[in-house]
Design goal:
Number of strands: 8
Strand order of the largest sheet: 4-5-6-7-8
Order of helices and strands: HHEHHHHHEHEHEHEHHEHHHEHEHH
Largest sheet: 5 strands, parallel
Strand content: 5-15%
Structural class: alpha/beta
Radius of gyration: 21 Å
Helix content: 40-55%
Amino acid sequence: MDRRTALVRLSSVVAAGAGWPTLSQAATTNRDQSGQPSPPPRARVRKIATEEAFVIPEIASEFRELARKGGRSLDLKLMNLIYNAPSSATFEIQTPNTPPPKDRDAYARTLLPRLLDVEEHRLAEMDANHVDMHLLSLTTPGVQMFERARAIELAKLSNDRLSEVIKRRPKRFAGLASFAPQDGAAAAKEMERAIRTLKLNGFLVNSHTGNAYLDDQRFWPILEAAEALDAPLYIHPRAPSDGMAGPFGDYRMEGAIWGYGMETGTHAVRLMLSGVLDRFPSLRIVIGHMGEALPFWLWRLDYMASPGSRAALRNNLKPSEYLQRNFAITTSGLDDPLALRYAIDKVGIDHVMWAIDYPFQNTPGSVAFIETAPLTDPEREQVAYRNAERIFRIG
């Protein structure tokens, strides 16, 4: 018996000891409200999770030092919680029978071992929840808070490690490369190496760098490289930049509850209104969390920024046209069937992909969401894996 199989079986033993039904028990005791056996479940759909984080020890150590030094960045709040707090509890494999965590701070202190692990506990948890593949990416804020030379060095090291993991487990992992936006020319060079030599599946940037966004001309070599390599660029959230940080510093608003979505949605709108997407019309961008609220705001964005309107100073197309031409979205961390239906209807079924946001979100809940959302079978297949295979060129 290999270690992953033993871990999955151990989780079932623990669940049974706690009085929770095991996976096999749950499969044989499902009944509807009348007490009659439930109809058999539909055939299990293949699942590729497209926003799944990891970290390497060298970068974790650098994060710890940044958190200890302190500073103005709101990102330091989460970094301090993950990298400076003592680890709590042992690594528990989440299964469909695992209750969601009640103490979020305690759960946050388990994140570091989950981020560092890739091929043992993570795979066991994937197997326990029938997740076929993780599209891995270096966790936020990546290398973007480091000094330029060190950032370049660590991005390259992270990409090398990521490539090695994928070569060992090509059916279970794909990967998005990191790069150091602090140096546009070096970033473009590393991006080319990541695609042509390491055979990775695209790139991930954690939104702003030095409080500047990708519409800034200093970052155009990055956009040019992504377009030339025909590889998608995932814009992942981080806490709001210093210029917009003020109102987000209270009530933990800087993070996933509000700040991340507002910050990354703002980044996407800057790209639309700046004319950058007219300069790089084939650029493919991915954003998470059901589109960072952009699908909901799309009518108003078009109304206020259609070509010829007062707000449309530089853009040649409507925001909705950029969204459908240049963007795809993932569900990461937003397991709402109504929001999913709206996003599909507004953006198009070809532009929506499933994600968990591991380890920050609950795997069993995200799996149950995609398996039970009111979609047709072809729609479910597209969201669960087909769009990911096409957009990220996953074989």
